[in-house]
């Protein structure tokens, strides 16, 4: 979701109270992540300065990139640890906070690497709540390979 999409969504929901609750949930998710998972402070400060506030979906592009780099052992020594990011997001997914789930699904799970891309495999470490959402986005990922020489159990 782009900044323009967020603004259009806000205009559609104005007057319903929904916009305030969801927008606050998105911002709270980002602020909680930065407070609870070391390594995102600099990215957050740069984001807030450049965007004149928090645009959660945009910020989460950096979260995905830094998390995957950490998973690949290519991240900065002071950067976030992918395990902490996944644990934090799993907790938030189970909490079902308005706005937060939308960001986690749309701007984290959706942007995880596909098969063949560097970092593919991180999805195997998702907790149950995020795994359920991930499989809704990519149902083929939960299907074991089949075909000549393969069984539903894998290679045969």
Task: Provide key terms for this protein.
single chain; 7 helices; 3% strand; 2 strands; 156 residues; globular; two-stranded antiparallel ribbon; mainly alpha; disordered C terminus
Structure explained in plain terms:
The protein has a two-stranded antiparallel ribbon. It has 7 helices and 2 strands; from the N terminus they run H-H-H-H-H-H-H-E-E. The chain starts with a helix and ends with a strand. The protein is an all-alpha fold and 156 residues long. Residues 152-156 have low confidence and may be disordered. The chain has one domain (3-155).
Low-confidence stretches: 152-156
β-strand percent reads under 5%
Rg over CA atoms: 17 Å
- The number of helical elements comes to 7
Approximately how much helix is present in the residues?
55-70%
The general outline is globular
Number of strands: 2
H and E order: HHHHHHHEE
Query: What would you call the structural class?
Result: mainly alpha
- Overall pLDDT: 86
Total domain count: 1
Main beta sheet: strand number and arrangement? Answer: 2 strands, antiparallel
Task: Please give the order of strands in the largest beta sheet.
Answer: 1-2
The end-to-end distance, rounded to whole angstroms, is 42 Å
């Amino acid at each position: 979701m782009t900044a323009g999409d967020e603004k259009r969504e806000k205009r559609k929901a104005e007057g319903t109270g929904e916009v305030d609750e969801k927008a606050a949930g998105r911002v709270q998710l980002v602020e909680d992540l930065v407070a609870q998972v070391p390594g995102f402070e600099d990215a957050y400060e740069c984001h807030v300065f450049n965007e004149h506030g928090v645009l959660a979906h945009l910020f989460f592009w950096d979260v995905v990139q830094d998390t995957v780099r950490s998973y690949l052992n290519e991240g900065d020594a002071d950067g976030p640890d992918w395990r902490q990011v996944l644990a934090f997001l799993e907790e938030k997914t189970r909490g079902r906070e308005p706005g937060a789930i939308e960001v986690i699904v749309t701007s984290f799970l959706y942007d995880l690497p596909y098969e063949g891309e560097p970092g593919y495999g991180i999805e195997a470490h998702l907790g149950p709540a995020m795994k359920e959402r991930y499989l809704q986005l990519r149902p083929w990922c939960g299907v074991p390979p089949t075909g000549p020489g393969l069984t539903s159990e894998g290679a045969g």
